[in-house]
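Problem 3 from the worked examples.
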Amino acid sequence: YCHGSSGSRGNQYRVDLVNYLASLGCAVYSFDYRGYADSPGESSQVNSIQDARQVLAFARAVHPDKRVVLYGHSMGTGVVCQTAYQLIQEDAAVDAVILEAPFLSIPDCVLKSPTLRFVNSLPIYKDFVWQFSDLFVTKDVIGDLKNVLILFAEDDEVIAPHHATELHTLCPASTLHLISEGGHNFLIQQGSVKKAIEEHLKRNDPPLQ
């Protein structure tokens, strides 16, 4: 499980998600990227992906016969998609991906954020953001991913809904579960989201664990 850009693996809604997934029989590995919480080092796109890959390698070593699902939330969806894409190139693809509140790319997300409408109109702000044009560009890699579930709430206060619908269009092997309420952080509190996750995990034979 790859969390978002704020807080740590200890945030209550993240703990609730991990506990829920564990209740389904999943062995869940939740971690903090370098530079977060008690993980020393510097936070960056490269380091975050390396961290995810190290945790995945450990999980695969502990559970060699289990299927693997990468789950990401917000910024973590960028980490998950880049990681999954790299593994496909190495012929070591994971079995499924779950993206909760994903975005097209960091610049696309920030420039069109519902909470940043005023500063988005400033040319100097746009110039600053596009200095990071290659940061977590999910839209360029998601088309190669398989067995993808996209979860999104229309009332997300951080990321606009069109990110989810466009990613769904770009990824033929994806399922979009769009709900009206859930905000950015609390989709897991909705029963229909839990049902979508459970159906996604059961879609394979044998069931993903």
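Problem 4, a separate protein:
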Amino acid sequence: MAHDAGVPVGDVVKSGPGLAFVVYPEAVSRMPGAPFWSVVFFFMLFTLGLDSQFVMMETIITAICDELKHYVANVYTYKVKTTIAFCIIGFLLGLPHVTEGGIYLLTLMDVYSAGFSLLFIALLEIICVIYVYDFRRFVRDLTYMLEFAPNMYWMVTWIIVGPSIIVFIFIFFCIGYEPLTYGDYVYSKGAEALGWLMVLAAIAPIIICAVHAVWKQEGTLWERIVKSSRPTDDWGPYHNKHRYALGYKLLEGRGDPGMVGGTLPPENYHMLSNGV
């Protein structure tokens, strides 16, 4: 392809959606038995996209249903209708991407919605789980669930390697940031502002919820941060048998802990929770 076009290979093969939908299809069309390989290639793209949609849609729908269960009775009985509604909405929102100028909108969303925000969220997840919740608690929970302790490789990865790599990528992303282009087209300032609004839409809920959690507490600012960073009383395994084994507070309606010989009345759960 580079030879026919008379350009360097780097000018033919570039990352982005054009690689899968422009460059690869043309390369496949030049292979012996092109119709067969074209069918196989696009079938692979179809199954890859379908599998990704299953994961993303199930994650969103489950999260919404989990929140709505406090306000809507038997919300899970409407899960099929909810799924269909979200699929239709997603289909309608995706139609602009297949218009004549859709590749420019797709590139804008691909760069901004799946770049800066994902790095920021991943870094926050590691900080919250490994450093705020504490990696020792995390390892204890995993050990109980898996029935074996994670080895040193995972410890080093969680504590040092993972955060360091994400910070490095984050810094490199900020230093190497340039105005967005697609081919010879340079996106306007308004388009870039729209892209940063996409980033903000993913990050803002995390910041707002964190500020709200701190605001609800009492005391100085640092005391509020410390209190809001602690796990709630109902955090941990559902069943009291597992909660007792891991040292979590026992809760009524979560089953009997099955300790200290037979059953234990719920009014005495606090004794086990306090180590009595």
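Solution to problem 4. The CA atoms of residues 101 and 107 lie 10 Å apart. The longest helix spans residues 34-68.
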